[in-house]
Amino acid sequence: MSEAQAAPAINQRTAHELTAFQQNILTILSEEPMYGLAIKRELEEYYNSEINHGRLYPNLDDLITDGLLEKSELDKRTNQYELTEEGYELLLGDLDWQFSKLVTDEERAADIQALIS
């Protein structure tokens, strides 16, 4: 078995272990730390539908437990969520994989460059 086929190290994490919803939360928080309702609004805009608190907050808690987010208090009623270094590295690894699959010729490479410019 080659190194590329070997099982990943136990500590090596990848975005495919997360739901798309959780990946979207991480993507939103890659821009800046936010409180829960701001995250909810961003997700609602992306999905173009209402996001239930019962869906959002358990996912935030799972991402905290997984070490991908940190939670701090803004005040006694409001928590702020921030992407950890591990969460950021996980997102970068996923984007690297996705771009490696998209960029197959010069025309597509130009399309990708136009998106990130």
Automatic annotation (TrEMBL):
Signal peptide: none
Positions of transmembrane segments: none
Domain Transcription regulator PadR N-terminal: 25-89
SUPFAM superfamilies in UniProt: Winged helix' DNA-binding domain
Highest taxon of source: Archaea
A Pfam family per the record: PadR
Protein name (Swiss-Prot/TrEMBL): Transcriptional regulator PadR-like family protein
Source organism (scientific name): Halalkalicoccus paucihalophilus
